[in-house]
Amino acid sequence: MLVIRAIGIVLHPQRNCANVIDTITGWAKARDTEIIGLADEIAGRTNGQVRPVNEVELGEQADLVVSLGGDGTMLRALRMCIDRRTPVLGVNLGRLGFLAEVDIPELGDALSAIDEHRFTVEPRTGLCAVIDGDEFIAFNDVALVRVPGHGMTEVLLHVEGHPFVEYAADAVVVATPTGSTAYNFAAGGPIVSPRAEGLLVTPAAPHSAFNRALFLSHGEKLALEVMPGSGEVAVEADGRLVGQVRPGTMIELLALPGAARVVRLGRTTFYQRTQRKFQLIGTVRTDES
After folding, report:
1. Is 134 a catalytic residue?
2. Which among 8, 57, 161, 217 has most CB atoms closer than 10 A?
3. Residue 267: helix, strand or coil by DSSP?
């Protein structure tokens, strides 16, 4: 049973969060709950009722984390909470996203619902990329992207330790079900339910004969080998540049089922949020007059 002694807040780097923070701190003060936030984020942006901490401390001390922003802010919050699987509530401050659960006017009621245990948690698969012994965590995707001025990204997929297919493309995207609506979708890949457990591999602007996406079970071993004919490749994790690799590099990718938990209050489903985001209703034209 969740007991909220401390709430961690993660802020959008640019949007004004002052009124939302006032709502959270007002709610918390009435319940003797502490509010903590990242020192470099809250400086000059809060009302003095938020205790500054670092990323490790936020992940360790918060019983609930509230993400104030869009999907990018939410992904960052999920990465901070991976060790303790701390529940994360997404509050939408701008354009409609896929991960946020409530808009600003609903926040107070949402916090009370969580405090009264009227909520569920939705597990989300994470993704770990291992490059030369270094680990990088993502919740949307890891992408191998062509460096401008260099040749195509050419990679050989190894599945269960055996070479399977080679891609030549502008990028090769390995996405979780959460990330299926991000870079994978832009590259022509399918939308996947967040309840699925596995990894999508999708080439962006492919130049190879085989240009289809693959979906692998979370238990299958996946590795991408940068081929000798490839140009230099940038590696991005959730859109963050984490390094550049040269031909001969082997990148291991591992799905992490249930690596994060997203708070759901039962107000919308994944399909309703997807329908609204992509305006799926009313876009089909017929020949009828």
Report:
1. no
2. 8
3. coil
pTM of the model: 0.92
**41 phi and psi, to 5 degrees?**
-85, -40
- 96-147 pLDDT tens trace: 678 999 999 999 999 999 999 999 999 999 999 999 999 999 999 999 999 9
Alpha-carbon gap, residue 156 to 130, rounded angstroms: 16
DSSP 173-220: EEE-SGGGGTHHHHTTPPP--TT--EEEEEEEEE-SS----EEEETTS
Catalytic residue among 22, 71, 115, 238: 71
**φ, ψ (nearest 5 deg) of residue 66:** -110, 120
Domains and CATH numbers, the chain: 6-119+265-278 (3.40.50.10330), 126-257 (2.60.200.30)
Read off the amino acid at residue 189: G
